[in-house]
């Protein structure tokens, strides 16, 4: 293997991970609220 192969791939991975985390932080939350019934026995 070439010298620095793992280091290079690890740096590329860290860059992709950082970009993904930045993008994830700016996405709006699209979770729907689940309304529970008043009677929990249902």
Description of the structure:
There is one protein chain. By secondary structure, the protein is mainly α. The chain is 52% helix and 0% strand. It has one helix and no strands. The longest helix has 22 residues. The chain is elongated, with a radius of gyration of 22 Å. The termini are far apart. The model has no long low-confidence stretch (mean pLDDT 80).
What is the topological layout?
Elements: H1 5-26
Structure described in brief:
With 42 residues, the chain is mostly helical. It is built from one helix and no strands.
What's the end-to-end separation, in Å? 63 Å
Instruction: Compute the number of helices.
Output: 1
Query: What is the H-and-E element order?
Result: H
Structural class: mainly alpha
> Can you tell me the overall shape?
elongated
List keywords for this structure.
single chain, about 40 residues, mainly alpha
